[in-house]
Write a structure and sequence with these properties.
This protein is α/β, with parallel strands linked by helices. It contains 14 helices and ten strands. The protein is 37% helix and 15% strand. The chain has a five-stranded mixed beta sheet with strand order 2-1-3-10-4. The chain has a five-stranded mixed beta sheet with strand order 7-6-8-5-9, with helices on both faces. Strand 6, helix 6 and strand 7 form a beta-alpha-beta unit.
Length: 362
């Protein structure tokens, strides 16, 4: 699929809270044809990995973990593909089953223990925990929230204030894109009522911007804006992080699963972070693993490599410079306070209820 903000005037807390029962990020909701720009080399500090390969509790047969990813298989999940195909999970005593789930379903399944661990957005975790769903955010994948609003430069849109009265495409009133849009608008004293929302449940809002059906749309920094530029149009990108760096997608697990399978989950996280470090150093390795896992991605390897390089940049936390996986508690606290001010947190929660470092490499 990355904290203080201005309250949104005229927000409807009850309506929003009801929607947030199943809120979440549709991370990597793009198809294999998505394309972001190749980005500059990323200088990311090494993740601290324990000496020797991560090892789960020894057993006669591997311990199975069901892992929920985003809606559609994508090169943006390269770290999971590499860790699987390179044998890092196997060497840790794990048998990993990767599943693709829409995020609202994923949050519910994680809370139920039907999925052991998965990639979900931090803005899903806050309202879910607030409403009693027993999940916890255990490792950061996207240090920078990838959700953005983008438009053609020719639209005249330059800031969030310029969205007033414009047509804005969005998949639906749920998920990180919905929260991000509210946050972005709130930062300039606007609400969703101040724009004309156009829903694209099939995630076609990027094409809608290209064709002029809408003035702007929500998307991901490593996807739709780049496709727009590849079509010959200069893109304007509005980042919510510039006003409120909402927590981005990370590894989330259920509280009961954490209690029952902590060693296995810890080994899974360590193996995944190892793969992230290796991909940051050599993106081609991540691309090769992705193509092996999802052959359709091999139809345009240059495009997919560009997507991956842009994705690597969003893994980095530019604010803290922390290693992959590290949790920015200061950012979480600011995000919690901001979302509470908007009426998006029905019941009080603390950062300790939302996140844990228990599964991170020591």
């Amino acid at each position: 699929m990355p904290t203080p903000r201005l309250p949104a005037p005229g927000s409807r807390p009850r309506e929003i809270a009801a929607l947030l029962v199943t809120v979440g990020l549709l991370a990597a909701c793009t198809s294999g044809a998505s394309a972001p720009p190749a980005s500059s080399d990323l200088n990311v500090g090494p993740t601290i990995i324990p000496s020797g390969p991560p090892v789960a509790t020894p057993s006669a047969s591997p311990l199975k973990l069901v892992v929920g990813l985003g809606y559609i298989p994508s090169v943006q999940f390269a770290q999971f593909y590499l860790a699987d195909r390179a044998g890092y999970y196997r060497d840790a005593g794990l048998e990993v089953e990767l599943q693709n789930k829409i995020d609202p379903d994923l949050v519910t399944l994680l809370g139920q223990g039907a999925i052991d661990i998965g990639s979900a957005d931090g803005t899903s975790v806050i309202p879910a925990v607030s409403q009693g769903i027993p999940i916890v955010y255990a490792a950061t994948i996207y240090g920078t929230n990838p959700s953005i609003v983008f438009a053609k430069a020719s639209s005249g849109i330059r800031t969030a204030a310029d969205l007033k009265g414009r047509k804005v495409g969005i998949p639906g009133k749920y998920g990180s894109s919905w929260i991000m849009l509210q946050a972005l608008l709130a930062s300039v004293g606007l609400t969703p009522d101040d724009v004309e929302l156009v829903l694209y449940p099939d995630f076609g809002q990027g094409v809608a911007v290209q064709e002029g059906a809408v003035d702007a749309a929500t998307g991901f920094a490593n996807n739709e804006p780049v496709q727009l530029e590849l079509s010959g149009e200069r893109a304007v990108v509005l980042h919510v992080d510039e006003t409120t760096p909402l927590p981005g997608p990370g590894l989330v697990t259920g509280r009961q699963t954490l209690a029952a399978k902590a060693d296995a989950l810890r080994a899974f996280v360590a193996a995944t972070l190892r793969a992230m470090d290796e991909i940051a150093a050599d993106p081609q390795r991540g691309l090769d693993a992705s193509v092996a896992a999802v052959p359709d991605l091999g139809q345009d390897p240059a495009r997919q490599l560009a997507i991956l390089k842009a994705t690597i940049e969003t893994w980095k936390n530019a604010r803290t410079g922390a290693p992959f996986g590290a949790i920015d508690r200061t950012g979480w606290q600011a995000s919690l306070e901001f979302m509470t001010s908007l009426g998006l947190v029905p019941n009080p929660v603390t950062v300790d209820q939302l996140v844990t470092e228990e599964l991170l490499p020591r």
